[in-house]
Amino acid sequence: MSKVSYIFLLCLCFLSLGLCNGGELRKNFYRLSCPQAEQIVRDITRKNVATNAALPAKLLRMHFHDCFVRGCDGSVLIDSTANNTAAEKDAIPNRSLAGFDVIDEIKTQLEKTCPGKVSCADIVALSARDSVLVQKSMWDVVTGRRDGRVSLFSNVAGNLPSPFSDFATLLKVFSSKGLDINDLVALSGAHTIGVSHCGAFSRRLFNFTGKGDADPSLDPNYAAFLKTQCPNPANPDTTVGLDPNSTLTFDTHYFTAVNQNQGLLQTDAALLTDPTSARIVTEFQSQAAFFEQFGKSMVKMGGIEVLVGEEGEIRKNCRVVN
Ligand code: HEM
Ligand SMILES: *[C@@H]1O[C@H](CO)[C@@H](O)[C@H](O)[C@H]1NC(C)=O
Ligand SMILES: *[C@@H]1O[C@H](CO)[C@@H](O)[C@H](O)[C@H]1NC(C)=O
Ligand SMILES: *[C@@H]1O[C@H](CO)[C@@H](O)[C@H](O)[C@H]1NC(C)=O
Ligand SMILES: CC(=O)N[C@H]1CO[C@H](CO)[C@@H](O)[C@@H]1O
């Protein structure tokens, strides 16, 4: 590369601000300060997954929510207090987040082993990776994130995409985080595990276009099945698998389902409404293609607007700022 184009790229990098912050993270950040850190996270995560098969979906989604709101700074973990009665956690899209107890268990052990060294934001990033059980780790988590001191309900709207977004909106939200169309489709593939409450999609089932019908882009048999699970009005506690026939396995089945008009959320279905995105959905029916891009996209997502160096703090308790 010529010197000029190198400098140009460097400038581009600084200009795009938050988008390049992930570059300051590195592999094995805790090699000297807490050599056991990654092993402790992995052991406690795996121990909990062994008795709770629903946990990987919770931890993966927690990392997504953390990164999209104020960057991957652990702000999603902070509890509301008398002084800040509306932390991120209490915003509506967060309602069904879970797994906070596992993060606490990991943090407690890390504070015993190497006090004040390992950030909550890194714990979230590592445990998201370690919870997803495939033959081998799908990506290397770079570490060195610092914890934020702010968590606000009011930061959630606009940063986390709503499940009713159309394709253009999804792409816009992802672009604003430095993520492209490949990242959008690959990361949506996280919906190959986990569940959704009826409220996130039931409007697709009843009177969708005002003619008493279901969303015409939804497979009619699947819509009929969903109506049996989520009658109108639905029980607010009922959940349905995001990937109809394989909720617990991290595989490519989500893309098969989306391609057969069995994407559960409007945003899953929306991936077929753009030709490029639709082509990528088809490509990701290959496991090698999906896993490779998912790993890359998770690393990119894990670098969104991170705090590094002397920024932020290392929280002692992930639920409260020091
Ligand atoms: C593309 C935009 C996205 C939208 C609109 C979206 C929306 C949703 C909604 C509404 C639910 C159901 C929540 C509930 O009712 O309990 C959900 C679940 C989930 N999301 Fe997403 N999501 C998106 C992207 C992502 C990304 C990027 C990831 C992770 C990389 C992710 C991981 C998950 C997981 C694993 C679940 C299942 C959670 C569980 O089983 O408790 N999602 N998502
Ligand atoms: C709440 O805010 C007040 C005034 O800023 C401060 O004096 C007090 O220590 C805070 N309480 C907590 C629990 O942070
Ligand atoms: C369906 O939507 C239309 C248009 O908004 C409305 O006039 C009609 O009353 C709705 N039907 C039902 C059963 O809610
Ligand atoms: C899921 O299973 C049902 C019943 O076996 C089948 O009709 C449906 O097509 C399957 N969906 C997908 C996406 O494979
Ligand atoms: C507004 C809202 O539903 N907030 C919920 C967010 O999640 C926490 C923890 O699960 C609930 O206690 C809140 O009620």
From TrEMBL:
Cofactor list: heme b; Ca(2+)
Keyword set, alphabetical order: Calcium, Disulfide bond, Glycoprotein, Heme, Hydrogen peroxide, Iron, Metal-binding, Oxidoreductase, Peroxidase, Secreted, Signal
Region forming the signal peptide: 1-22
Function according to Swiss-Prot or TrEMBL: Removal of H(2)O(2), oxidation of toxic reductants, biosynthesis and degradation of lignin, suberization, auxin catabolism, response to environmental stresses such as wounding, pathogen attack and oxidative stress.
PROSITE patterns associated with the record: PEROXIDASE_1, PEROXIDASE_4
The keyword Heme belongs to this UniProt entry's keyword annotation: yes
Catalytic reaction list: 2 a phenolic donor + H2O2 = 2 a phenolic radical donor + 2 H2O
Pfam families named in the record: peroxidase
Top-level taxon in the UniProt lineage: Eukaryota
EC number(s) on file: 1.11.1.7
Organism: Rehmannia glutinosa (Chinese foxglove)
Top-level EC class: oxidoreductase
Compartments where found: Secreted
Limits of the Plant heme peroxidase family profile domain: 24-322
Protein name: Peroxidase
Cofactor note: Binds 1 heme b (iron(II)-protoporphyrin IX) group per subunit. Binds 2 calcium ions per subunit.
Family: Belongs to the peroxidase family. Classical plant (class III) peroxidase subfamily. Belongs to the peroxidase family. Ascorbate peroxidase subfamily.
